[in-house]
Amino acid sequence: MDPSHWAALFPSCGGLRQSPINIVSSKVHVNSALPPFDFIGHTNTLNITVENKGHSVRLTGGALPGHYRASQFHFHWGGNGNPGSEHTIDGERFPMELHIVHIKEPYGTLAEAEHDLAGIALLGFLFEVMKHPIIAALGRVQNNGEHNSTESISRELHNYYRYVGSITTPGCEQAVTWTLFHKTLAISSRQQCRFWNGQPMTNIFRPTQPLDGRVVYRSSAVKPLSSAFHLWFSQISFGITKITKYD
């Protein structure tokens, strides 16, 4: 369905706190009260199954300690050589975007958290095309029945944008505290091509939505925060999720 028609079936998609947005860097407000993140548990090793759900690639992991626990990962990309990030910075769309969805404790499911205006914390990472990619298997999950593994993701994260918004797929629930990191992740041009090489899943992003009076904040952290995400994607199979967490 064309995103412009979502609101007819999902009224929240026509709300005033919708995502994604275009962030105008000259208009953001620096908020010194926004500290660096403490990614408790994100350095744990997870054995994760990758699922093709028809609209995005979802990686469903186990609960992680903290006030918000990780629930799922998914990606957004373009097609035919065009960029496909959901958020844009000063009108620039990036090749891809990674979302890591966290649910507020003590909610057990995303559906429960959606009823709380602060129920979901969503981390966004933009990608740039580089010679030395971080993720080795992203472009191999358009179809089911494949088996691949990835390298670790290790990035320094300290500056980020913050605003209140929504889920970017129907029903567009307005229960999200968004964090979009300045630091980009690397993907090779070859990997990018695998996302839009004629497979059914292309142009997987929602157009930017009006800000409607919302304020976008930027953190003022000055020291980089090292955070490693060690993800091994194994046993890729459609519709089956097997999760093993090694402490």
Automatic annotation (TrEMBL):
<comment type="function">
    <text>Reversible hydration of carbon dioxide.</text>
</comment>
<protein>
    <recommendedName>
        <fullName>Carbonic anhydrase</fullName>
        <ecNumber>4.2.1.1</ecNumber>
    </recommendedName>
</protein>
<keyword id="KW-0862">Zinc</keyword>
<comment type="similarity">
    <text>Belongs to the alpha-carbonic anhydrase family.</text>
</comment>
<dbReference type="InterPro" id="IPR023561">
    <property type="entry name" value="Carbonic_anhydrase_a-class"/>
</dbReference>
<dbReference type="InterPro" id="IPR001148">
    <property type="entry name" value="CA_dom"/>
</dbReference>
<feature type="domain" description="Alpha-carbonic anhydrase">
    <location>
        <begin position="1"/>
        <end position="220"/>
    </location>
</feature>
<keyword id="KW-0456">Lyase</keyword>
<dbReference type="Pfam" id="PF00194">
    <property type="entry name" value="Carb_anhydrase"/>
</dbReference>
<dbReference type="InterPro" id="IPR036398">
    <property type="entry name" value="CA_dom_sf"/>
</dbReference>
<dbReference type="GO" id="GO:0005886">
    <property type="term" value="C:plasma membrane"/>
</dbReference>
<keyword id="KW-0479">Metal-binding</keyword>
<dbReference type="GO" id="GO:0004089">
    <property type="term" value="F:carbonate dehydratase activity"/>
</dbReference>
<dbReference type="GO" id="GO:0008270">
    <property type="term" value="F:zinc ion binding"/>
</dbReference>
<dbReference type="InterPro" id="IPR018338">
    <property type="entry name" value="Carbonic_anhydrase_a-class_CS"/>
</dbReference>
